[in-house]
Design a protein that fits this description.
7 helices
């Protein structure tokens, strides 16, 4: 498989990419736990069918010490016993925030209130921003059919 457009050599795409990568740095430096950030990125990527980001965030999370059991169960987090209540709230917010078109009202008040029980305002801001950012990356990669499987942890650091 070959990408329809090389996002790394296109001057416009590369410049755009630098800005959204910089936004990701702000989130990496936030107080939202990095494990939660990776779980959120992985779940949104699964929902959006983004192989490139699913590959990347599975490998980055494993490289950071995440267990294979938890990574393997992200897609079935509701039935899994390996996630904390806070992580479950973040995953629910991720699913609702990613599947906006599936619900006329968008994210429910219940999902928001549950997340707010576990995260302070700055962490909520980071969580919402992480969900928005990964959805942006997913859409870029799905649009151009970015191939998956060759990512190495830290490749874009």
């Amino acid at each position: 498989m070959e990408a329809r457009l090389n996002l790394f050599t296109s001057p416009v795409a590369a410049k755009f990419g630098k800005h959204i990568v910089a936004a990701g740095k702000v989130l990496a430096d936030s107080t939202l736990p990095l494990a939660t950030q990776e779980l959120v990125k992985l779940r949104a990527s699964q929902i959006n069918g983004c192989g490139f980001c699913t590959d990347m965030h599975t490998k980055d999370a494993a490289h950071a010490g995440e267990t294979s059991t938890r990574l393997n169960l992200v897609a079935a987090w509701r039935e899994a016993t390996v996630f904390t209540d806070a992580e479950r709230a973040a995953l629910e917010l991720t699913e609702q925030g990613t599947r906006i078109a599936d619900a006329a009202g968008g994210v429910t008040d219940e999902a928001w209130a549950n997340a707010a029980k576990h995260y302070d305002e700055e962490q909520l801001a980071a969580l919402v921003s992480t969900i928005a950012l990964i959805n942006t990356f997913n859409r870029l990669n799905v649009l151009v059919q970015q191939p998956a499987g060759d990512y190495r942890p830290g490749q874009f650091a």
